[in-house]
Amino acid sequence: MESLGIRLKKLRKDKGLTQVELGKLSGVTGVTIGYWEKDLNEPGSKALSKLAQALGTTESYLLYGVSSPELSFVQSNPGTKIPYFSWGDAISFLILEGEKTMGNVDRITTFFDVVEGDFAVSMPDDTMHNPSGSPSIPVGATVILRPGESYKNGSIVAVIVPDPLTNEPSMTIKN
């Protein structure tokens, strides 16, 4: 399925415009157009309207790929429910390898792409706080974890290690 960024870039190229030229026509900078084309963020309603006008299309087409006004409704995504654990229960879940061992489990709805086995926890501390910026996960943020996923250098990972004082399992999230 095409994203807003893909549709935007295709239309811009079809019109023979540079990012800077399209930016001038729609009241933003060329850099902003570049961010939209890379799907790093999306235009607000005023910018979207100007963008659609400059490209000779509709806002519905840019946002959803729908070109006909009578089809310009969007089915809502009901989201996916995934387990939501306390920090301690998340450790048990990972050690015992599955929620079937956990009994009744709270669930939250997420609109992110998730797979079977993903679950959510709330950051209990500031172990992932980076005062100089990104990546940083604030205390209380909900984090979705994917057990068993391979990691690459620079990935943010959750790791279970023995607590140095009690030798009990402890989980930490690090980059």
From TrEMBL:
Coiled-coil region(s) = none
Q: Which GO terms describe its molecular function?
A: DNA binding
Q: SMART domains given for it?
A: HTH_XRE
InterPro entries reported in the protein's UniProt record: Cro/C1-type_HTH, Lambda_DNA-bd_dom_sf, LexA/Signal_pep-like_sf
Highest taxon, organism lineage: Bacteria
Query: What residue stretches are annotated with the HTH cro/C1-type domain?
Result: 8-62
Put simply, this protein is called Repressor protein
Q: What is the lineage of its organism?
A: Bacteria, Pseudomonadati, Pseudomonadota, Gammaproteobacteria, Enterobacterales
